[in-house]
Amino acid sequence: MIIRQFAALFKARTMEFVRDRGTFYWNLLFPVILVLGMAFAFSGSDEKLYKIGVVGSPDASVRILGMEQMHVIHYDQAGDALEKLARHQIDFLLDFDKREFAVNEESNKGRFLRELFTAQQSAVGGTGLLTVEAFDERAVSGKATRYVDWLVPGVIGMNMMFSSLFGVGYVLVRYRKNGVLKRLKATPVHALNFVSAQAASRLVIVLLTSVFVFSGTNLLLHFVMRGSYLNLLLLTAMGILCMISLGLVFASRMRSEELAGGLLNIVTFPMLALSGVFFSLEGSPAILRTISRAFPLTHFIEAARKIMLDGAGLAQIAPNLFFLGGLTVIFLILSSALFRWE
Amino acid sequence: MTDILRVENLSKYYGSVKAVDNVSFAIPEGICFGLLGPNGAGKTTTIEIMEGITAPNAGRVLFRGTPIGADFKKKVGIQFQTTALPEFITVKETLELFSAFYANPRPMDEVIRLCSLEDILQRDNQKLSGGQKQRMLLALAIIPKPEVVFLDEPTTGLDPQARRNFWDLIGRIKAEKTTVILTTHYMDEAQLLCEQVAIMDQGKIMEIDTPDALLAKHFDGVLISLPYDGCCSDALSGFDGLVMHDDSIELQTTTLDTSLKKLLAAHVDLEGLSIHKPNLEDLFIKLTGSSLRT
Predict the structure, then answer these.
(1) Looking at the partner chain, which of A15, A19, A179 has a beta carbon nearest the beta carbon of B82?
(2) What is the distance between the alpha carbons of residues A336 and A180, in angstroms, rounded to a whole number?
């Protein structure tokens, strides 16, 4: 009987989601567009690192101009070039007519280029700067991790968070407000069974969405994947369950959709900012990093990156999985204790 | 007839407001019981306590002699005053959903026939008209083959034709010997459908009996109504059984002929006069001293 009720509720909720075309396509397309857009925006891989302005005819003796990291821009007037330099639009200026160079003291790149240039000048002059013992060189090869490889777990995590929190939390509050929950209260359906069916439906929906977003964008972008897809799937399922149970805590007795929306934003925005969705928190103040450890999204994204980029196995991501699992249990206990039909 | 439901000393407070104030009554099995009253009279609170949806502050509800418990939900059908239906699923799918909640639900064909849902089975719940939605909600209420069906203002907001159609459906359910408990503020509805009515106002039951017995108790003969524009109050002061309203006069009489002659003799303008048998609405106005505060 309980299974039949569960199955019927699961089916109804899933049909409701799939048939709500607008929400359905938004859930699928938005993350795909975001990943592809970001990949396109950050696609310039072999970017020139420095811009050097040149006035007059270059002298072959200046070697830094020929280095592949340099982008050389010619100017007719020294005045124009100096203005660009003042605005950090170029990093260094060589004037061959006047035999002088210029740097902007406020530019790190400029100061670095000055060091390089004067060292080279000294070497040419024969004084020789290398007085310390020479180091041997060792070659390391390997493709760079593109930003998009690093980003994709973040975007999937973000989508998962919104879809789980709002798809369960917000929907239950709406059901309570418009009387759907009250009508169900008048049937023999147990609250726990009803809530489990909602959560299970959302779990399947978000998991399939995540798989779709990942494999769809992977066709075009060929992400780095050094770990196991099965582990990634397990992690994703646990991340979704954790988010859904957090959504259930919010949905346990609230009646106002506006309040629920506002409170959900209070939870989602800090996670969005501090869980490392778009940028790494390495090097940020310790307090922020400590706070971010409390967010389930941080643990999901961190573990997903470990699997994808570092080829981590279950043992390496176990702390993250335990954190997500523990939080899920706490949220579920809390929400079932707080739940009211009305 | 045995009592299927008995309400004993029920009270429910919301802050300092007594929504239901020490109410007791019994409902015999197989009848249609009407709980009448204006908005805010306490009808919905009373019926929701009887359904087991709301807990009372005092008193209890007995179903076949025992206090209602968790099992009660399997034996009753409930139609709330306002209920939204799950969105993006059809009428048929909603019926299937609710059928899955009960161990032994009524066959789908029977539900569809009883509530005349044949034409709207494939329609999305969101696209139902007011009357269609009420039929649908009634269908959900009768899925468990209930012994008691609670209908809370089922025809409020419906057009006259939809109301009459709905009365037919209630008639079908009554014909199955199901006990129907109906709240309404339409007195014609109660008079037509209910074997017994309770009139409620300000949390208290004011009268309870069959409609005929109540009318016989409170009225004798017929009612003469006249528009009243402020004139002739002196001429009218000699009449017994006269009730003055803001813009009309009501005269209750057992001797219609004599009363009319007396009115003519007193030179009262009889333009706009009407004569009717007293109904529940007249009784309600008499009991509460006001017209329905809808």
Answers:
(1) A179
(2) 19
Q: Are strands B58-63 and B66-67 parallel, antiparallel or unpaired?
A: antiparallel
Q: Which residues of B111-149 are buried (b: 16+ CB within 10 A; e: fewer)?
A: bbebbbbeebeebbbeebeebbbbbbbbbbbbbbbbbbb
Order of strands, edge to edge, in the sheet holding B17-28?
B17-28, B3-14, B58-63, B66-67
Residue of B101, B108, B133, B138 best to disrupt the A interface, most CBs of A under 10 A: B101
Average pLDDT, chain A: 87
Report pLDDT for B233: 64
What are the residues facing B150 on neighbouring strands? B78, B181
Q: In what order do the strands lie in the sheet with B179-184?
A: B76-79, B148-152, B179-184, B32-36, B196-201, B204-209
Query: Is A303 or B236 the better-scoring residue by pLDDT?
Result: A303
- What the block records as the tokens of B231 is 């004139």
Q: pTM for this one?
A: 0.79
| More confidently predicted of A332 and A48 | A332
The rounded distance, in Å, linking the Cα atoms of B140 and A241 is: 32
Contacts of B271 (CB under 8 A, 6+ apart): B227
Both tokens of residue B173?
A: 């359910």
What is the pLDDT at residue B294? 43
Domain residue limits, chain A = 2-42+145-338, 50-125
Q: What does the pLDDT look like over A26-44, one tens digit per residue? A: 888 888 888 888 878 776 6
Residue pair B85/B94 in contact (Cβ under 8 Å)? The answer is: yes
pLDDT the model gives residue B105: 93
B42-67 burial code (b ≥16 CB/10 A, e <16): bbbbbbbbbbbbbebeebebebeeee
**Looking at CA atoms only, how far is residue B8 from chain A in angstroms?**
22
Q: Tell which residue, B85, B143, B88, has the closest CA to residue B114.
A: B143
Residues of chain B above pLDDT 70, percent:
95
Which candidate from B74, B87, B100 shows the least CB-CB separation from A8? Answer: B100
Answer yes or no: do B101 and A5 touch at CB < 8 A: yes
**pLDDT attached to residue A173:** 92
Residues of chain B with pLDDT under 50: 291-294
Q: Are A149 and A305 in contact (CB under 8 A)?
A: no
Provide the pLDDT confidence category of residue A129 given band limits of 50, 70 and 90: very low
Q: What are A109-123's pLDDT values in tens digits?
A: 888 888 888 888 777
pLDDT of A211 reads: 93
List of domains in chain B: 3-210 (3.40.50.300), 220-277 (3.30.70)
Residues of B within 8 A of A186 (CB-CB) are: 51, 53, 73, 76, 78, 80
- Looking at 3.30.230.70, 3.40.50.1100, 3.40.50.300, 3.40.190.10, the CATH number of the domain A50-125 comes to 3.40.190.10
